[in-house]
Amino acid sequence: EENMLDKSPMLLQMNLVHKMVPVLIHNGKPICESLVILQYINEVWKLSFPICCPLILNHLSQARFWADFICDSGKRILMAKGEVQEGAKKEMIECLKILEGEIGDKLYFGGEKFEFLDIETLPCSA
What Enzyme Commission number(s) appear in the record (predicted)? Predict the structure, then answer.
């Protein structure tokens, strides 16, 4: 776990651009940003259950949209203060309500398959 108010030297070294988490370090090399990390995992380990490649192209574009939106909203909540932060929180809550309606009675956003949108929304369920 990383203290975002007192960032470790390792984080600062491994994520030179944003200096934020998440960062996956594989073979000593950093891979930054949630979606990039998920795509990297899927490519490197050629998983038998693709976590970031839904079979239906339309579903993939929708999943990427929501994942980007959640990631951006989360960053605004963490980095902003005051009214901007409160606005970002309200936006995130509305987004999660829409996603809750989308998932309905399904186990995962992709139906029976655990995909990258499910991973991206995990921090929101804590």
Answer: 2.5.1.18
The two three-digit tokens of residue 32, written as one number: 């930054």
Torsion angle (degrees, nearest 10) of CA 49, 51, 56, 59: 150
pTM of the model: 0.48
For residue 58, the model assigns a pLDDT of 57
Q: What span, in angstroms and rounded, lies between the C-alpha atoms of 42 and 105?
A: 27
Name which of 46, 62, 45 is nearest 54 in CA terms: 62
Does 57-125 carry CATH code 1.10.443.10?
no
Residues 68, 35 contacting (CB under 8 angstroms)? yes
Per-residue pLDDT at 4: 72
